[in-house]
Design a protein that fits this description.
Elements: H1 3-27, E1 48-51, E2 56-58, E3 66-72, H2 79-94, E4 101-107, H3 115-122, E5 130-133, H4 136-145, E6 150-152, E7 164-166, E8 170-173, E9 179-183, H5 189-201
Parallel strand pairs: 3-4, 4-5
Antiparallel strand pairs: 1-2, 1-5, 3-8, 6-7, 8-9
Helix pairs in contact: 2-5
Amino acid sequence: MPSRQKLIFALVVLVIAAITGAGALWLTGSLPRGPIGSGTALVGGPFTLTDQNGKRVTDQDFRGKYMLIFFGFTFCPDVCPSELQVMSAALDQMGSEADKIQPVFITIDPARDTPEAMKVYVSNFHPRLIGLTGSEADIAAVAKAYRVYYAKAKGTENQTDYLMDHSTILYLMGPDGKFVKHFTYGTEAKGLAEALRQAVQQ
Protein backbone atom coordinates (compact mmCIF):
# COMPACT_ATOMS: atom_id res chain seq x y z
CA MET A 1 0.00 0.00 0.00
CA PRO A 2 1.50 3.41 -0.99
CA SER A 3 2.65 5.53 1.97
CA ARG A 4 0.00 8.21 1.23
CA GLN A 5 -2.80 5.62 1.39
CA LYS A 6 -1.34 4.19 4.59
CA LEU A 7 -1.37 7.64 6.17
CA ILE A 8 -5.00 8.26 5.16
CA PHE A 9 -6.01 4.82 6.43
CA ALA A 10 -4.30 5.45 9.79
CA LEU A 11 -6.04 8.80 10.19
CA VAL A 12 -9.44 7.25 9.44
CA VAL A 13 -8.83 4.54 12.06
CA LEU A 14 -7.87 7.17 14.65
CA VAL A 15 -10.99 9.23 13.95
CA ILE A 16 -13.27 6.17 14.22
CA ALA A 17 -11.59 5.17 17.48
CA ALA A 18 -12.03 8.65 18.93
CA ILE A 19 -15.72 8.78 17.98
CA THR A 20 -16.35 5.30 19.36
CA GLY A 21 -14.58 6.11 22.62
CA ALA A 22 -16.50 9.35 23.10
CA GLY A 23 -19.76 7.55 22.43
CA ALA A 24 -18.95 4.94 25.04
CA LEU A 25 -18.10 7.57 27.61
CA TRP A 26 -21.35 9.42 26.84
CA LEU A 27 -23.43 6.27 27.31
CA THR A 28 -21.75 5.41 30.60
CA GLY A 29 -22.29 8.89 31.97
CA SER A 30 -18.63 9.91 32.04
CA LEU A 31 -19.32 12.96 29.92
CA PRO A 32 -21.71 15.75 30.93
CA ARG A 33 -25.16 15.57 29.29
CA GLY A 34 -24.82 19.18 28.17
CA PRO A 35 -22.19 21.10 26.19
CA ILE A 36 -18.92 19.21 26.61
CA GLY A 37 -16.66 20.95 29.09
CA SER A 38 -19.35 23.38 30.24
CA GLY A 39 -19.52 21.96 33.77
CA THR A 40 -23.07 23.31 34.03
CA ALA A 41 -25.62 21.29 36.01
CA LEU A 42 -28.77 20.69 33.99
CA VAL A 43 -31.10 21.79 36.79
CA GLY A 44 -33.58 24.64 36.62
CA GLY A 45 -34.94 26.76 33.83
CA PRO A 46 -37.81 29.05 32.85
CA PHE A 47 -41.18 28.58 34.53
CA THR A 48 -44.54 30.32 34.79
CA LEU A 49 -46.58 29.57 37.91
CA THR A 50 -49.18 31.12 40.21
CA ASP A 51 -48.31 32.37 43.69
CA GLN A 52 -50.43 32.10 46.83
CA ASN A 53 -52.07 35.44 46.04
CA GLY A 54 -53.25 34.29 42.63
CA LYS A 55 -50.60 36.27 40.71
CA ARG A 56 -48.85 34.68 37.73
CA VAL A 57 -45.09 34.82 38.18
CA THR A 58 -42.10 33.61 36.21
CA ASP A 59 -38.53 32.72 37.10
CA GLN A 60 -37.55 36.21 35.91
CA ASP A 61 -39.44 37.75 38.84
CA PHE A 62 -36.83 36.27 41.20
CA ARG A 63 -33.73 37.53 39.43
CA GLY A 64 -31.29 39.34 41.70
CA LYS A 65 -31.93 37.02 44.63
CA TYR A 66 -31.01 33.46 45.45
CA MET A 67 -33.94 31.05 45.41
CA LEU A 68 -34.15 28.24 47.97
CA ILE A 69 -36.67 25.85 46.44
CA PHE A 70 -38.45 22.80 47.82
CA PHE A 71 -41.05 20.72 45.96
CA GLY A 72 -43.84 19.10 47.96
CA PHE A 73 -47.56 19.26 48.73
CA THR A 74 -49.74 20.69 51.47
CA PHE A 75 -51.27 17.32 52.44
CA CYS A 76 -47.79 15.91 53.12
CA PRO A 77 -47.84 14.42 56.63
CA ASP A 78 -44.19 14.71 57.58
CA VAL A 79 -41.39 15.33 55.06
CA CYS A 80 -42.66 18.64 53.66
CA PRO A 81 -43.51 20.41 56.92
CA SER A 82 -40.27 19.12 58.44
CA GLU A 83 -38.16 20.45 55.55
CA LEU A 84 -39.96 23.79 55.47
CA GLN A 85 -39.36 24.17 59.20
CA VAL A 86 -35.66 23.51 58.66
CA MET A 87 -35.59 26.08 55.83
CA SER A 88 -37.31 28.65 58.05
CA ALA A 89 -35.01 28.01 61.00
CA ALA A 90 -31.90 28.24 58.81
CA LEU A 91 -33.01 31.58 57.36
CA ASP A 92 -33.75 32.90 60.85
CA GLN A 93 -30.24 31.90 61.96
CA MET A 94 -28.70 33.81 59.06
CA GLY A 95 -29.98 37.18 60.23
CA SER A 96 -29.88 39.98 57.65
CA GLU A 97 -27.96 37.80 55.18
CA ALA A 98 -31.16 35.80 54.67
CA ASP A 99 -32.58 38.82 52.83
CA LYS A 100 -30.51 37.71 49.83
CA ILE A 101 -32.50 34.48 49.65
CA GLN A 102 -36.10 33.96 48.56
CA PRO A 103 -37.58 30.75 50.00
CA VAL A 104 -39.97 29.04 47.58
CA PHE A 105 -42.32 26.08 47.98
CA ILE A 106 -43.60 24.55 44.71
CA THR A 107 -46.45 22.06 44.87
CA ILE A 108 -46.47 18.78 42.98
CA ASP A 109 -50.18 18.35 43.75
CA PRO A 110 -51.88 21.20 41.85
CA ALA A 111 -55.28 19.47 41.88
CA ARG A 112 -55.63 20.14 45.62
CA ASP A 113 -53.05 22.88 46.19
CA THR A 114 -54.93 25.91 44.94
CA PRO A 115 -53.55 29.41 45.57
CA GLU A 116 -55.91 29.69 48.55
CA ALA A 117 -54.68 26.40 50.03
CA MET A 118 -51.06 27.40 49.45
CA LYS A 119 -51.61 30.76 51.16
CA VAL A 120 -52.90 29.10 54.31
CA TYR A 121 -50.15 26.51 54.27
CA VAL A 122 -47.09 28.74 53.74
CA SER A 123 -48.30 31.09 56.49
CA ASN A 124 -47.26 28.37 58.96
CA PHE A 125 -43.60 28.77 58.06
CA HIS A 126 -41.20 31.59 57.19
CA PRO A 127 -42.97 34.94 56.66
CA ARG A 128 -41.23 35.41 53.31
CA LEU A 129 -41.98 31.92 52.00
CA ILE A 130 -43.70 32.02 48.61
CA GLY A 131 -45.97 29.15 47.57
CA LEU A 132 -46.28 28.39 43.86
CA THR A 133 -48.87 26.27 42.08
CA GLY A 134 -50.41 26.15 38.61
CA SER A 135 -52.01 23.82 36.11
CA GLU A 136 -50.99 20.18 35.74
CA ALA A 137 -48.95 21.23 32.69
CA ASP A 138 -47.28 24.09 34.59
CA ILE A 139 -46.18 21.77 37.38
CA ALA A 140 -45.06 19.03 35.01
CA ALA A 141 -42.86 21.54 33.17
CA VAL A 142 -41.16 22.97 36.26
CA ALA A 143 -40.69 19.51 37.79
CA LYS A 144 -39.03 18.34 34.58
CA ALA A 145 -36.74 21.38 34.55
CA TYR A 146 -35.62 20.66 38.12
CA ARG A 147 -35.39 16.89 37.63
CA VAL A 148 -38.07 16.34 40.29
CA TYR A 149 -39.86 13.01 40.53
CA TYR A 150 -43.48 12.92 41.71
CA ALA A 151 -46.45 10.56 41.46
CA LYS A 152 -49.46 9.48 43.46
CA ALA A 153 -48.44 6.90 46.03
CA LYS A 154 -49.19 3.31 45.10
CA GLY A 155 -52.51 2.15 46.41
CA THR A 156 -53.93 5.66 46.68
CA GLU A 157 -54.15 6.57 42.99
CA ASN A 158 -57.95 6.40 42.87
CA GLN A 159 -58.60 7.87 46.29
CA THR A 160 -59.58 11.43 47.12
CA ASP A 161 -57.38 11.44 50.21
CA TYR A 162 -54.21 10.33 48.43
CA LEU A 163 -50.53 10.79 49.20
CA MET A 164 -47.76 11.82 46.81
CA ASP A 165 -44.33 10.29 46.35
CA HIS A 166 -41.77 12.93 45.41
CA SER A 167 -38.12 13.97 45.47
CA THR A 168 -36.91 15.62 48.66
CA ILE A 169 -34.05 17.73 47.34
CA LEU A 170 -33.65 21.37 48.41
CA TYR A 171 -32.30 23.51 45.57
CA LEU A 172 -30.29 26.73 45.82
CA MET A 173 -30.43 28.77 42.62
CA GLY A 174 -28.27 31.84 42.04
CA PRO A 175 -29.35 35.45 41.40
CA ASP A 176 -28.96 34.66 37.68
CA GLY A 177 -31.33 31.70 37.95
CA LYS A 178 -28.60 29.10 37.57
CA PHE A 179 -28.10 26.11 39.83
CA VAL A 180 -25.68 26.68 42.73
CA LYS A 181 -26.01 23.58 44.90
CA HIS A 182 -28.49 21.20 46.48
CA PHE A 183 -29.12 19.86 49.97
CA THR A 184 -30.42 16.42 50.82
CA TYR A 185 -33.35 15.80 53.13
CA GLY A 186 -32.16 15.54 56.72
CA THR A 187 -29.71 18.46 56.56
CA GLU A 188 -30.00 20.23 59.91
CA ALA A 189 -30.89 23.90 60.18
CA LYS A 190 -27.48 24.90 61.56
CA GLY A 191 -25.59 23.19 58.75
CA LEU A 192 -27.97 24.57 56.14
CA ALA A 193 -27.61 28.11 57.49
CA GLU A 194 -23.82 27.88 57.36
CA ALA A 195 -23.80 26.49 53.82
CA LEU A 196 -26.21 29.18 52.63
CA ARG A 197 -24.15 31.88 54.32
CA GLN A 198 -21.02 30.71 52.52
CA ALA A 199 -22.86 30.56 49.19
CA VAL A 200 -24.25 34.09 49.32
CA GLN A 201 -20.92 35.52 50.44
CA GLN A 202 -19.01 34.21 47.42
